[in-house]
Amino acid sequence: MIKTRLTFITAGLTLAAAGMAHAHASFELDSTPNEETFKAILQVPHGCDGKATTEVQVKLPEGFVFAKPQPKPGWELEIIKGDYQKTYDNHGTKVSSGPVEIRWKGGNLPDDYYDTFVIRGKVSGFDEETVLAFPTTQLCGTEAKIVWDEVPAAGENAHALEHPAPTVTVTPASDEQAHGGHGTHQAAAGPVEVGDLEISGGSVKAMLPGAKVGGGGFVVKNTGSADDRLLAVESPAAGRVELHEMTMENDVMKMRKLEDGIVIPAGETVELKSGGLHLMFIEVPKSFAEGDAVPVTLTFKKAGKVDYVLPVGSAGGEAAGHKHK
Signal peptide position in this chain (predicted)? Predict the structure, then answer.
C-alpha cells in the first residue's frame, strides 16, 4: 500500500480546526510525478476583505528545488535563498542550497479580479506518495493579510479548513522517469502565446542510443509592432541548450553559437530547424527516442518566459533553418 505523508517547509504550519469553506489560494495543477520539473501555478482568487492584494509570499517545501519564479509586470520579485536539508543532483552537480521563498511585491491586484503567480522547479527525493505544502501569505497594504498555512490533521478533510495551504501531491516516478525518460510528457496541443509572440510547430530529432547531443527547433511569430529576442532555452532533458546557426562559407557548412540570442522581428515569423537557426541540446542524459517529447522553457527579452513541449520525430526528419514571412 502506498503511504501518504505531509512535507512542510517550516514548523509553523497550523493544524487548524475546520471552518467555513470558501475560495482559497490553490494550485492550478496539484499533482506531479517525482523527479519531474513542475510549474506551480498559484491562483489568488480574492483580496483581503475587499482590499487589493499588494504582495504574495510563497514558502517552498523541502524537495521542491532549483526554483525559478516567473516575473509579473508591475510586481517586484524577491528570491530568498537558504540551505536545503538534503543534497540534490542537478545534471551531475550536487546542490545543497537554493531558493526557499519567493515574494512578488509592490503590485496591485483588486479584490474584483484574480491572478496567477508561477514558480517552476523540480520535485525530487520522494519514493512514496507525498503531499507538499506551500505556505502562502497575501498582504493587502500594511494592515490586512491572509495566511494560507493550514493543513489537515489525520482524517480531516482539507476542504473544510478556512485557510488551507496550497498543496501538490507527488507520486512515485515510473521506471522510465526514474532512469531519465521523457516519454511521459505530452506534446503541445497547439500554439502557445506569450506577450506578442506565438510559438508553434517544431520538433526534436531522435538520437542514436548513447548520443549526448541533439538538435531541434520551433516556429515563432511576432504579431507586435516591436522586435523581440530569444535569449535562452532551458530543458530538464539536457544539461544545457544552446542557440546555434548553420551557414555556408566557401562551400563548407559551419556552425556557430549565437551568444546574443535570435532576433524575432516585428510582424515576422522565424523558424528554427536543421540547416539554419536551431537548438542544440547538450549533455543529454538519455538519448531522445522517436515518440518521446522534450519540455523546454523559452526566455524572450520582452515577452518573458514560456513553457513549451517539442515532440521527438525520426532521426532523419526535419527538426525545425531560418525563414521569414
Answer: 1-23
For every residue of 196-259, DSSP letters joined together read TEEEEEEEEE---TT--EEEEEEEEEE-SSS-EEEEEEE-TTSSEEEEEEEEEETTEEEEEE-T
| Cβ contact 307:37 at 8 Å | no
Cell numbers given for 277: 537557426
CA neighbor of 205 nearest in space, from 315, 54, 308: 315
**Taking Cα atoms as reference points, which of 325, 324, 320, 297 lies closest to residue 244?**
320
| Top-confidence residue, 14 or 82 | 82
Asked if 187 and 290 touch (Cβ cutoff 8 Å), the reply is: no
pTM value is: 0.53
**CA–CA gap between residue 70 and residue 64 (Å, rounded):** 16
**Which residues 6+ apart lie within 8 Å of 28 measured at CB?**
41, 42, 43, 116
Please give the order of strands across the beta sheet that includes 36-44.
26-27, 36-44, 115-123, 64-69
Give the residues across from 63 on adjacent strands.
Answer: none
Q: Indicate the helix (H) or strand (E) that contains 85.
A: strand 76-90
Residue identified by cell 548553420 is 246
Contact 109, 115 (CB under 8 A): yes
Is the distance from CB of 44 to CB of 117 less than 8 angstroms? yes
pLDDT tens sequence across 157-192: 666 788 999 999 998 765 444 444 443 344 444 688
Alpha helices in the chain (DSSP H): 175-178
Domains of the chain: 5-173 (2.60.40.2230), 192-313 (2.60.40.1890)
Sign of the torsion angle spanned by Cα atoms 281, 282, 285, 287: positive
Query: Are 78 and 54 contacting, i.e. CB atoms less than 8 angstroms apart?
Result: no
Q: How many CB atoms lie within 10 A of CB 118?
A: 17
For 316, the grid coordinates are 532523419
